[in-house]
User: Fold this.
Amino acid sequence: MWWGLDEGIFDSAKRLIREHETYVKSVLDENARRTRRSTLSQVPLAVKRPQAWAVDPGFNPYLVRARRGAIAHAITASMRNRSYSPRPPAGFEVPKSSGGSRVVSTFQIADEVVSNRLLRSLTRKNLPRISARAYAYRPDLTPHDAIGYIKSEFAREHRVFVAEYDFSKFFDTVDHAYLLDTLDRVGIVRTPLEQFLIQRFLESPEPCLPSELEGLPRVRGIPQGTSVSLFLANVAAADLDRELERIGVGFVRYADDTLMWSADYGRICDAAAALHHVSDKIGSEINVEKSPGVSLLVKERAQDAEIRTTKSIDYLGHTIGLRSTRMKASTIERIKSKIEHLIFVNLLLEPLRKGQAATQLTDVDRDYVTLIWQIRRYLYGPLSENDIRRFQHGSIPPMSFEGVMSFFPLIDDDAGLFALDTWMASQIWLAMRKRERLLFAASLACPPPLGLSKEELIGFQSKSKRTGASLDLRMPSFRKIAGVIRTAVSTHGLGVVSGKAPLYLYVNNGKSGK
Assistant:
């Protein structure tokens, strides 16, 4: 398990360096675009170093990469004599979508390498002991598998009782004695060294903010920001999984987010009671404000029934009904906000500031070209419009899809996707009309696609007079890429899209760290 620790530290540091340098390049590219767009002086975007780098050298991947041999030797020696403890994690405040802020933590690079190896070893040996309906942080299942299972179960029902409950600060409140006892009760296979490391990570101090000298000792809760916590979270909820299986209700659990359903009202009530009972043992209370409780899920056109009804439930960034799956409303709003920002920055910012560079207005509006490329990259990843159309009419090879729509391979809401396409086309067309008026007032050229109708704008293509190269400026489409991804999933399975934890964090604003 611990062979080649220096190589693991090197690989982790190298990955972090690559991510940072990709970010730096994106900042420099955006500064260059701003300079090209404007005749006014620009305040360049600053390249920000991660806050953790200033806390301790152990967070700086450049320094860790250079010292990996000495670090690996020291950690290996400390594990042999059982003196190892992870260094205190750094904490940082991030805003919550509901208002206020929460503290997120990150462990030093070498400690995270140890934690990740511990996670992989424990998971490999104990996967059969984890419920098949627990979908979080596993190599064999993804959040998409959870959504697919819910869809397949709901498709058989005309109405079904659902129970939606939310733990309050689950990771922060798990009782250590209960968790360690569960490791034995569930029969988790582990070596003495692994048991020692589990206890050391559980005892790691609370994350300290940069303004604090040190974090408080941890007396309960699972430390967030480190890999082994993901396995421990599944262990903490193992009793709940087994009790729900015994009762015989359908359920899925992603970390602390549990959705239960049954056609039998008595069983769903038993399941709700079991969840409350286990929450008391775990030490994490049910969040009453965020827990709708038991309701009857009915079809979209159904009338009200004898108890409180709902037409859909929200789970892992999706809104799921008995016969439909679509993106959650808050996710759609974030996507719209991103596109509105791109439209404003590329088309309207400089004309409104009276700083539009005439060099961008040649045979084609170069700022419009940038906008389309950025939106396409956001929706499609690296795929071109020709790629999408070729996949629509031919076979799709095994590949890995990127872009925001790869987060939602199982949605079937074509009407909603068409509405998004219509909204985006309208927003771009309205912005182009306003841009044209502003450019005309400034006595600047108004090259294509300025002046086109909405329909012409959607299908606009051009050629560069300078190079003769084709410029495919057809407007990207939510509906097209969603259809292509659905076809790819039906052909090759969910392996064509991301199944990693960042998906869940993206669509829920980090809800797993409530």
Notes: Residues 501-514 have pLDDT under 50 and may be disordered. The longest helix spans residues 5-37. The longest strand covers residues 159-166.
